């Protein structure tokens, strides 16, 4: 991607209200979007996160012109896992109260950022989202074709993330976007339903973006029928009336099902020589196909190429729609509600991330477990904060000094850090303090310092006291046993994993 020379439009206003998250697959339209933002009143320090969702071998290189932009840009790589995963990666790295999702193919109005701040200012606490207004430019010299009309339908669609800002706390509360939606389809509606079901409101703002119609080939309408698999997931997660609650038109699926069913009956009847059944069934299927094609042709430009495309695709769409719907129903028949990864993972120090050396006062004796560094980096790379909560009674017992403890902790941080929070109890057990695990105080303190809900927190430890501290704080505890872990602690633990790497696999997969 190349970019025109930037025009400086800096603002010295301190702080940032929102982080702008832009998922991209490397379209040239990203250049236009970022250049338009460069002409607006973003603070110099305003965070913009671009998430490259191309396959790993294609994406990840930082364009040189990012450094020329008059605002801060961070590039993350999601590896082709789809827009839901890309947006999740972006907002989890955000630390602002709001997160503004903008697609890479929209063009913000020249006053978009100022209007965004005005839309967010003073919103009541129960408003969890603010949706921008979308304009789709259509040709003035002719009627819009089928694809142009489909794109124009986005103008009135609620909750679409072409321009939608959410409170970060609301995203944390519901686990963000459901990554089982692999396409840019229904993942935004699913999130909107979960946000509103949790008591939040999503209001329309006054800011505007333009959504140009992308060039496509003639079979795009057939490929888009893969979204019927996502509709099957929506039904599984939200019930049969999800369309009504999400203000989504029912569409033509029932007619498509009759079209396909009639064609199947006609084929079977013909194969068995039952002409009286085959002919009416075939005529019904043909009539429905003709009606469908006519409904698509009449509002359009009615040119020869467009008519031929509508006829061909109208014959194929019902079969594609039904096939994808059936596959989706099978694939998602056991789908459970999405939780997403936690917002914070806390770890015991000794026996969990480094080998336990009793009352260690020697930094050179710090030896991490083999999977610790990679596991912690995977959490950080996914925008999940990590911290340490540890009992260090050696200080209270006079066996090590505070300075020696600090040196050992620094060595741990050098090898495995950085950590977002570090909380420790320095008392001896006989001091009867209220912070020593299994007391929940260290977990609560860590959550308070990072403004994280304990229910979105996981504590990983190697003994029962760690799990009990998590439970009392309202967090989830996971036990990673060592030879020193008592058998009864393993038996009593609700969640046991062989090592930290297995814990991270579960957390990133939304299983916790």
Automatic annotation (TrEMBL):
**Entry annotated with the keyword NAD:** no
- List residues of the Glycosyltransferase 2-like domain: 19-128
- Tell me where in or outside the cell this protein is found: Cytoplasm
Which one of the record's GO molecular function terms can you name? Answer: metal ion binding
One matching Pfam family, short form? Answer: Hydrolase_like
Per UniProt, which keywords does this protein have?
Carbohydrate metabolism, Cytoplasm, Hydrolase, Metal-binding
**Single Gene Ontology BP annotation:** carbohydrate metabolic process
Q: Which InterPro entries match?
A: Glyco_trans_2-like, HAD-like_sf, HAD-SF_hydro_IIIA, HAD_sf, Heptose_bisP_phosphatase, Histidinol-phos, Nucleotide-diphossugar_trans
Task: Kindly list the GO CC terms recorded for this protein.
Answer: cytoplasm
Tell me its family: Belongs to the GmhB family.
User: Could you tell me which PANTHER family the record lists for this protein?
Assistant: D-GLYCERO-BETA-D-MANNO-HEPTOSE-1,7-BISPHOSPHATE 7-PHOSPHATASE (PTHR42891:SF1)
- Name of this chain's protein: D,D-heptose 1,7-bisphosphate phosphatase
């Amino acid at each position: 991607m190349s970019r025109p020379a930037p025009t400086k439009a800096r603002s010295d206003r301190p702080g940032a209200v929102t982080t702008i998250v832009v998922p991209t697959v490397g379209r040239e339209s990203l250049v236009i979007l970022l250049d338009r933002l460069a002409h607006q009143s973003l603070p110099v320090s305003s965070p913009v996160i671009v998430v490259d969702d191309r396959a790993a071998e294609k994406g990840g290189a930082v364009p040189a012109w990012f450094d020329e932009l008059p605002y801060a840009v961070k590039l993350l790589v999601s590896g082709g896992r789809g827009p839901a995963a890309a947006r999740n990666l972006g907002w989890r790295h955000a630390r602002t109260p709001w997160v503004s999702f903008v697609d890479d193919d929209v063009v913000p109005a020249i006053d978009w950022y100022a209007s965004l701040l005005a839309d967010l200012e003073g919103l009541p606490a129960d408003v969890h989202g603010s949706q921008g207004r979308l304009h789709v430019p259509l040709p003035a010299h002719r009627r819009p074709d089928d694809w142009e009309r489909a794109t124009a339908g986005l103008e009135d669609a609620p909750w679409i993330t072409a321009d939608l800002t959410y409170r970060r706390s609301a995203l944390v509360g519901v686990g963000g976007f459901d990554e089982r939606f692999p396409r840019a389809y229904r993942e935004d509606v699913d999130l909107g339903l979960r946000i509103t079901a949790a008591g939040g409101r999503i209001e329309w703002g006054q800011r505007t973006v333009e959504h140009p119609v992308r060039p496509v080939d003639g079979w795009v309408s057939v490929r888009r029928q893969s979204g019927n698999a996502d509709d099957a997931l929506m039904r599984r997660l939200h019930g049969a009336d999800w369309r009504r609650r999400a203000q989504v038109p029912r569409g033509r699926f029932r007619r498509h099902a009759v079209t396909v069913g009639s064609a199947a009956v006609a084929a079977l009847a013909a194969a068995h020589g039952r002409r009286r059944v085959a002919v009416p069934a075939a005529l019904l299927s043909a009539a429905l196909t003709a009606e469908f094609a006519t409904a698509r042709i009449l509002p359009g430009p009615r040119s020869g190429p467009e008519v031929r495309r509508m006829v061909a695709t109208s014959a194929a769409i019902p079969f594609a729609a039904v096939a994808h719907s059936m596959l989706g129903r099978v694939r998602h028949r056991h789908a459970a509600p999405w939780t997403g990864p936690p917002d914070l993972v806390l770890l015991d120090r000794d026996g969990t991330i480094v080998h336990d050396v009793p009352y260690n006062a020697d930094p050179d004796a710090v030896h991490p477990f083999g999977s610790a560094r990679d596991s912690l980096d995977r959490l950080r790379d996914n925008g999940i904060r990590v911290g340490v909560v540890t009992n260090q009674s050696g200080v209270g017992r006079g066996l090590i000094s505070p300075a020696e403890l600090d040196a050992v902790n620094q060595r741990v941080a050098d090898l495995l850090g950085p950590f977002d929070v570090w909380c420790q109890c320095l008392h001896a057990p006989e001091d009867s303090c209220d912070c020593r695990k299994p007391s929940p105080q260290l977990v609560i303190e860590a959550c308070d310092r990072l403004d994280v809900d304990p229910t979105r927190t996981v504590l990983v430890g190697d003994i029962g006291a760690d799990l009990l501290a998590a439970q009392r704080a309202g967090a989830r505890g996971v036990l990673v046993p060592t030879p020193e872990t008592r058998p009864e602690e393993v038996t009593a633990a609700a969640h046991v994993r062989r090592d930290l790497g297995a814990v991270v696999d579960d957390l990133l997969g939304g299983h916790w």
